[in-house]
Every structure is written in structure tokens, then in C-alpha cells.
Input
Amino acid sequence: MKARFSLLAALMLAGIAVQAQNPIIRDQFSADPSALVVGDRVYVFPSHDIPAPDEYARKDWFCMADYHVFSSDNLTDWKDHGVIVDQWTAPWVNEKGYSMWAPDCKQNPNNGDYYFFWPAGAKPQPRADGRRAMGGGNRVGVAIAHNPFGPYIPQATPLEGVGGIDPCIFVDDDGTAYLVMPGITITKLNDDWLSVSTDPADRHRVEEVPTKGLVEGPYLFKHNGKYYMTFPWARDVEEVLAYCMADNIFGPYKFMGVFFEEHANKCWTNHHSIIEFKGQTYLFYHHNDYSPKFDKNRAVCADSIFFEPDGSIRMVKPSLRGIGVTQANKEIQIDRYSEISQSGDSIAYIDTTNYFAGWKTVFYEQGAWVKYNTVNFENAPQRVKVKVAAPSTGTLEILQDDKVISKVKLSPKNTASEIVADVKGAATGVHHLKVRLASKGNVQVDWLSFE
Ligand code: FUB
Output
């Protein structure tokens, strides 16, 4: 198993760019995204779900052996910087644990380095009397790097006195850092960021979270001077995202309710982080888009967050379109639509034996349409290329905002192939795109791009 993942790690180290709407990471499973803004780039540190190898007995459970980091300067093209920490080389981690769960990473203002915190099962602890070693339990480790993309050097031992999963690091405006753990507890980190304060005055338990239903994955952030303690909450069965607000880090907090409802298809977990980037607030979360039948293989997504005038968080509706501007000359995956007509079209997997192949839009009624927002036409395009399968002749109309700029003549082809059509009267700049079936038929569109 180790050899297989090391090969994958080596390939990833080449720095592969993934163009993205939702999910943003499209070539591997990813979950529990922790986003971090560094200058004009966003770094995302997710956990990494994998299918359980033979040596891992719990086939129905989370299985994670390493972490990658991804980054983007436009929220559309994400670069995979490769593996930064894995269970085989982190000194204290059980190398058969596959339990590298939700991590977090922040820059330490005391020295400018990046501190990656992650939970994992520790190596079984030997017992003095020679009996079988005891399980090491979940501990929290720290790995340090000079750059957000690594290389990260793991510390020899986990944080003293800290057990559990889902660490979150919050750095206040004065540079004081806190470790936030499910429970929910907030504990001041010492200046070295390698130990927590043991002074009871430096520790606070947030009592205002719901007491019924699991609360995990806390993420603390500050917006307009207020503290927002956000967390996944198994209100009934699947997790919603909820939050409390406070004027001071140690409270009192006020429970504000839910800002993200359960996923429609019953993905049990959600886990998130929230950042502000170039004046907009974004939510990073996960869903099991690439594994519809097994919700422990998840995929990282992102959407915008908006606040009401009183500071409360507006309910987030997860979208397929996600965030970022799409360049008109790239493959535009219209199945990640912003809006879809009420009837006459639907989204389907291209290959149900390989979900990473993505989706296609199936138009089956005349007049059905999908709208894909925020496409940048750097130059006025002359042609459009559409990857499409159609059983009979017909026409697809391409609209820029509400103006028809191309009529793509379809010829009968049951397998998807690329058709090129002329574009007339298209404008430059950022526009919304619409694709409409102007004829009858079962027309399946994979993507389109402009030349
Ligand atoms: O990814 C494993 C666990 O599932 C995380 O640590 C939890 O927050 C939940 O997302």
C-alpha cells in the first residue's frame, strides 16, 4: 500500500492543475477543507479519503493516510502541491491507522512559519509488563514549513495534554493563537505553538452549542469584530452547519442557528472553513459528489457566504457552479450550472464505473436550458466547440446573457464528439452563458469552449 501511495505522491509533486467548479478537486477524494489566505493565493488543506486497502478492516468507515495541499489565485484553477504529511513518515502516528482526519493550518506571526495541525491515531503504546500494546488514541500533531505548500517537518511527538479530532487554530488580531477542539473548547496556544497553556484562565468551554446531537469540526473566525464559532451538527442524522456568535473570544456566545442544511443525498458529514478573499467571504465544505453510494469518500466544494446587516450569516445554498470566474477558452462544464430550466433537462454521470469522469447535461425537451454564470471572454470569440452526443439532427443555441451568439447544428452521433460552430456578435468581458435546445431529441452535452 505504502508503495502505491508514494507513487501517487510523486506524480502529485509534479504540481497538477485542476480546473474547477464544484467540486473544486476533481481527480481524487477530498474532505474537511481548511482554507488559508496567503497573499493573493488561497491554500486548501483537506483530508484525503481513499478506498480502504486490504490491511484496513473497516471497509464502511473513513480511511485516510495522508494530506495534500492545493492552491489557487483565481478560485478556479487549483494546483495540487502533493503530499505534505503521511501516516508512514510522521513519527508518532500509527502507520496502519488510516485515521488522518480533519486538519488545519495557520501562519505563526511569531516566526512567519506555517503550522499544520492534524489529528490521527497514535502508535500503540507499549506496556511495561509486556502485555499486548494498547491503542494510542487520537492525538493532534504539528508539522512546520517555511512555505504554505511545504515541505512540512512533523514534530516527533503530538501535542502534550491534547486528545481528540478536528483541531482548529484561531489567530486573534493581537497575534494570540488558540486551539479550538470539539466539545467545544478554546485553549490558548503558547508562543511556540507546540504546546497549550495549562492555566485554567486560558481555557473556555463554549456551553451554548446544542447538547442533543453530535457537534464536531469547530471553525472559529472573526468578521467585523465579532467571533463566529461555526460547527457541523448532527441535528437529526446528517450534519448541518450551525454557529454561535460572541463579542469576546471566551464568550458569552449566543446560539444563532443553522446556516447550511443537510445535504440532499444524505452525506452524513459536512466539515468546513471560512475565509475572506479579495473582499468576499467563502465557505469551503464537502459533499460526496464522486461517491454517491458511499458517503465516506467525499469531495471539497466552495460557495460564497453573505452576511445580513445584523451580522448573522445568510443561509448558504450549496451550488454546482461554485466560485471563481471561468475563462471562455477553457472547457466549460455546463453541468455545473447556475440555473436550470424547470423541466426538459437533467444532469447525469458520464461513466458510472468512474465517477471522476464527471457529468453531462442531458437535454430531452425543446426549449430546455441551463445557465452558467460568470464566464470571462477575454477576446470576442469566433467559434464555439461543443462536445456533444445527439441521436438525430437538431440545433443547440448558445446565448451570451440573453443574446443568441451561435446555433450549433447537431448531426446524429451516439458517442460524444466535438462539433465546431461559428459565433457571431459575442462581446468581450464577463458574461453569463446559456445553452438551450432549440429542437427535439436526447442531446447530451459534456462541455463547450470558445475559440
Ligand atoms: O473526515 C473524518 C471526519 O469526518 C472529520 O474529522 C469530521 O469532522 C467529519 O468530517
